[in-house]
Amino acid sequence: MRFPITAAIASIALFACSSAEEAAPLETVENAWVRLPAVDGRPAAAYFMLNGGEAGDTLLAVDSERVATIELHETTMEDGVMRMRPIMSADVPAGETVAFEPGGRHAMLFGIDPEITPGTSVSLNFRFDSGRDVSVDAVTIAAGGDAPFEAAQPE
């Protein structure tokens, strides 16, 4: 008689765990694009939108097999001068969208594969504090080109 009760309790516990995981949509990365440098050998910049889902998360890093180093940066205005500085991570609160956009937060791509040209794409892997990785293909544009996504800002 004890076995059916134990099995029932275990089944309920398992169901509760799987339902909680299914109920919390995971973060997403959208509208990723890369502006290539005007001069070969200089860094490129990547822009994208992070959606926090129901749980939220923290972006720790971005990497790519076709880029030597990728750093997260933030541009700020200080005493009338634009300054860029590295950031270690970016919080993505639950239910919110965080923009990495020109003039604000962005990713700097150092040592980009020279075969990446305007109109091609580059795979970017986003690593989050939760342990989750999200890979997306980012479209590439030439230096000075228009952003490929009109909705480059959170709604």
From TrEMBL:
Kindly indicate whether the keyword Cytoplasm belongs to this entry: no
Record carries keyword Signal:
yes
SUPFAM superfamilies attached here? DR1885-like metal-binding protein
Coiled-coil parts of chain: none
Pfam families noted in UniProt: PCuAC
Q: Where is the signal peptide?
A: 1-23
**The entry's keywords:** Signal
- What is this protein identified as? Copper(I)-binding protein
